[in-house]
Amino acid sequence: MGSKTPKKMALTGSARKIKDNAADWHNLMQRWESGNDAAFSAANKIINLKISALSYEKLILDDAASAHEGPDKDKEELERLCSELLDLIEKMSQIQLKMEKLTSTFKGVCDLEDYQHRGENPRPILFHTWPTTLFYEASLKMSEMYKKEVSLKKTIVGEIAHTADQDLLMVYLSCWLYQPYIDSGSKVLLESMLLETGHRTL
């Protein structure tokens, strides 16, 4: 008769909350990337329409008999895309606020640990090597990146519709795509958090 694999004990209390938070971080970052791709696509279409409109205006100056349907149709499409982009950035803002809430939850776990283990040093390790404070610090660092990024994106959204300079429009689009405030360290922090809590295995 084969030996049974021992059952892992179910996590409770702070350990459970930290593990759940790590999974939530992963899900929110996936949702952010999906939202960012959709928003980039909308922003790209807006910029292409604006560049076409600028070219059309030049064409009008050269040819007064050009069709009138073009600019009206483009204007309607531009308004639709701007509305879509505003909706998408609002959803991304909500994701960022949820990231802040996760960070607050990590802080709450740290505060509870401080209360329960005051005077003890070192503090108990809930998983492998990370003290509880490291989860909070990692979450705070990632949250700050996304907070700065969403602020930049809101600025870009406000500027795109009113900018007539093609080069500047391309700079805005590039900034949106490359997300300057979210560096590769965010993925390293997330993967480290997932490894530490057992969501990932080596």
Describe, in plain words, how this protein is organized in 3D.
With 202 residues, the protein is mostly helical. It is 75% helix and 0% strand. The chain is built from five helices and no strands. The longest helix is centred in the first third of the chain and has 50 residues, at 13-62. It is elongated, with a radius of gyration of 24 Å. The two termini are 30 Å apart.
The largest sheet, given as strand count, sense and whether it forms a barrel, is: none
Number of helices: 5
Poorly predicted runs are 1-9
Tell me the distance between the termini. Answer: 30 Å
Taken from the alpha-carbon principal axes, the silhouette is elongated
Task: Characterize this entry briefly.
The protein is mainly α. It has 5 helices and no strands. The two termini are 30 Å apart.
How are the elements arranged and paired?
Layout: H1 13-62, H2 69-116, H3 132-160, H4 166-178, H5 185-196
Helix pairs in contact: 1-2, 1-3, 1-4, 2-3, 3-4, 3-5
Key phrases:
202 residues, mainly alpha, 5 helices, elongated
